[in-house]
Design goal:
The chain is mostly helical and 94 residues long. It has a domain of 53 residues. The protein is built from five helices and no strands. The N and C termini lie far apart (40 Å). Pfam families: UPF0175. InterPro entries: UPF0175.
């Protein structure tokens, strides 16, 4: 499904193809960050949609002022996530 922004004021702006692409990428990032912030998508899905690594996504989230932690998580859920992250890091030799 394609996302369409219908706004007459925006339709009348003439920009180069390069600048249009830059603006569309920033709009996509903003849309994905908004969905992530309100909990509609996971950080993994956000990274996949944007075509970036999880580490790069964390940097982008920081720019947007979005916490990497889910405030609604219970302590046990957070502990399990930390354990899973430690396992992955250990497997990768960190």
């Amino acid at each position: 499904m394609a996302l369409t922004i219908a706004d007459e004021a925006l339709e009348n702006i003439q920009v180069s193809a390069e600048n249009r692409e830059k603006a569309l990428q920033k709009a996509k990032q903003g849309y994905v960050m908004a969905l992530l912030e309100i909990g509609e998508i996971s950080s993994g899905r956000a990274a996949k949609i944007m075509g970036v690594s999880r580490l790069d996504l964390i940097k982008i989230m920081n720019k947007w002022g979005i916490s990497i932690f889910d405030d609604s998580q219970e302590l046990e859920e957070l502990r399990q996530e930390v354990e899973q992250a430690e396992l992955i890091l250990n497997q990768q030799g960190f």
